């Protein structure tokens, strides 16, 4: 059995945000992605592709919710780590 902080468990949680986003339920989706991102950051290197994808997904939702400065800051951080 996989634990709550296992990368596959976190990936499954992240997938759950897709229908939430499509229903316009941004707050629950953002809360889930924020939790997933923080947990990934404790178990993987800062520039790990999984972290960068999750951060981009969170930035997308923040943008959809109109939180443009937060989305820009997160995307800028992702871009910096990809370079």
Automatic annotation (TrEMBL):
Short name of any one Pfam family annotated for the protein: TPR_10
Q: Which domain of life is it from?
A: Eukaryota
Provide the protein name.
Kinesin light chain
